[in-house]
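Obj: model holo form, ligand = 2-phosphoglycolic acid.
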Amino acid sequence: MRVLIFDNHQEASDAAANIVAEQLNAKPDSVLGLATGSSPVALYERLIEKHRSEGLDFSLVTTFNLDEYIGLSKSDPQSYHAFMHQHLFDYINIAEQNIYLPSGTSENYRAFCQWYEKQIVLAGGIDLQVLGIGTDGHIAFNEPGSSLGSRTRIKTLAEQTRKDNARYFDSVDDVPHYAITMGVGTILEARKILLLAKGKKKAAAIREAVEGPVTAMNTASALQLHPDATLLLDRKAAEELSLKDYFLEIQKKEPKAP
Ligand code: PGA
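Output (holo structure tokens):
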């Protein structure tokens, strides 16, 4: 696990955007795994800027999103379909047929989940997966207690997650109770992983993910098992790490390291 600590979230997002751009420049037909929520918004803004000013090309890119609320149609403004178009897809040259998101309105979720997993395999697997982290340590909607080998499936949202996400809805009662989400096992198969975390409210979840045991109680801790996972944290999200100074020292020395 590589832990990078930045003065603020904008710097973390800029660094993440540079890593995504390197990936796309090295492999123009990359498969990206994408996340929703507030954590990746500044990254997406920077990618749009790079598309406009540097010609960063998405024409051959395929994307798979992590999750979607059950019961929300694509056109629902609170859906993650709408979120992705509003924050990224409408502003880059991605082909509509290369965009995949889990469906929140399937007639047969079990079949849909299997189909979704198969599309990831047929696309060649995810080259680079972007993640946020919940205050309960979840990645995607893999709430505490999720199997670390889990695949795309329906999860019941934890009350904490529904409260955290209520800010996007009129009230907490409007937040769906279920979501369709890639599993921890699905995520761990991505070749490279970037996790963005900002603010003090993520500090405890980050401490447990980085310095705690690998446990289903904090599904981000499963990233300890991944060979190429980078956490991009602002200072507040890194505040509770006992190894914070060591991580900062590595970051400073890294360019010169043998
Ligand atoms: P946030 O959500 O980016 O809106 O903080 C992250 C998550 O719940 O995974």
